[in-house]
Amino acid sequence: MHSALTEKNIELYDKYVMKTYPKADILFTRGSGCHLWDGDGNEYLDFAAGIAVCSLGHCHPAVTKAIIDQAQKLVHVSNLFMNERQPELASKLISHCFDGVCFFCNSGAEANEGLIKLARKWGSIRGRYEIIAMNDSFHGRTLATLAATGRSKYRKGFEPDTLGFKHVPFNDLEAARNAIDSKTAAILLEPVQGEGGIIPATQEYLEGIRRLCDEKGILLLFDEVQCGMGRTGTLFAWQGYGVEPDAFSLAKALGNGYPIAAMIAKRKLEGVLTPGTHASTFGGTPLASAAACAVVDTLCNGGVLENCKKQGAFLAGLLKELMPKHACIKDVRGKGLMVGVVLDYPAVELLPILRSKGMIALTAGETVLRLVPPLIVNEDDCRKAAALIDAALAEREASAK
Ligand SMILES: Cc1ncc(COP(=O)(O)O)c(C=O)c1O
User: Fold this and answer.
1) What average pLDDT does this structure show over 375-383?
2) What pLDDT is attached to residue 263?
3) What sign does the CA torsion over 92, 93, 98, 103 have?
4) Residues with a CB atom less than 6 Å from ligand 1
5) What value does the mean pLDDT take over residues 261-269?
6) pTM tops 0.90, yes or no
7) What is the whole-number distance in angstroms between the Cα of residue 109 and the centre of ligand 1?
8) What is the CA(394)–ligand 1 centre distance, in A?
9) What is the rounded distance in angstroms from the CA atom of residue 170 to the CA atom of residue 345?
C-alpha cells in the first residue's frame, strides 16, 4: 500500500487529534484536476473529490485566483457590515434559481439547521413545528440535523433526540401523506440520497411531494448539500426534476473546497428569519464568497454541467458492462456524476484494494461503492476508473475463494 505517513505525523496525530475518523493510511500533499499525489509522489485517480466537494477538480485555477486576489484585499468582516462579495454571490445564485434570498454559513449541517429553523419559525405562528424526513437520509451531525437524519446508528449515544421529527420511507408518497398532521410544518428530503446509498427520487415521487405540500399548506425543503452544485448535471438537482422546493441547502461543492454553505429560500419566506433570529460569524465572508462566485461562474459558463451529464452516462455505461463479469454487482444507479455501484457485500472492502491500485473512491450505505469524481472528468479517466474497479472486483473475488 502506498503511504507517505511519517512516524512524526502518526505520533502527533495519535496524541493530539480526536479520533472521530477511521485511521487514515495516506497523506496527500498535492492535487490537480482529478488527481492527487501523496507525500511519496504516488499519483491517485480521485473519484471521491473530498466527499463530492472539489467538483471543479483540485486547485481549479479560477477558484485559486479568486481566493488569492480576495485574500490580498479583505478576508473577513462581520455580517454587521456589508462586504462586496456576499451580495454578488447571492445574486448569482438567485439568477440561476427562483426569486428569493440566501443565508450563508459554513457547513452542510449548518445550512440544514437553517432550513429547520426557517420551517419552525414559519410554523410557529401556525401551530406547526414537526418536520417529516426520510428513512436512510443524512442531514448532518448537529443535534437537530442528526434528529432529521433517517439512520438511527448516527444518533446512538447522543440521546435524547431533538423533538419534532418523523421518518417515512423515501420514494413512498402515501407514507408521506399519512404522516402529515396538524403539527407538520415541512417535508425535508435529498432529491438524490447520498450517504443512504445514491438513491435518486423518482420523478413521480418528487412531483407528488410538491403537490402534497401545496395541498396541505406546508413547506418543501430540499437538502442539496451533496447532490447540488452541478453534481447531477443541473446546477441544482431539483432543476433536473423541474420541481421547486420552498427552500433548499447547499454546501460541499459551493466553494470547491473552501468552506461555505447556503440556505436559499423563496421570496415569500424572506421575512421569516429577522435580525437577531439567526446568524453565523463566518457566513459569507468576502473570501468564502469570492471562492463561491468563481465556482458558480465556472460551473455555469464552462460547459461543466454538460460534461457532467455526458461523463455520468458514460461512466454508468462502463460500469454496467462489468455486470455480466462480476455477479456481485447488483445495480448501477445514480444521476449525473453521482454514481453508485450496488454490491452484494460491504463496499468498504473494495476501498483499500482500489487505493493500492491508485484510485480513491467512497462508500454509501453498506453495500454501495460511491463514485463522485470532479465534474471536469474526461472519458479517459472514466475508462481508467472502470478498469481499476474491474481489477479490484476480480482481486476481491479471488481472495474470497
Ligand atoms: C446530504 C447531506 N446533508 C448534509 C451533510 C452534512 O454536511 P457537513 O458535513 O458539511 O456538515 C452531508 C454530508 O455528507 C450530506 O451528504
Assistant:
1) 98
2) 98
3) negative
4) 51, 107-109, 112, 138-140, 190, 194-195, 223, 225-226, 251
5) 98
6) yes
7) 6
8) 32
9) 23
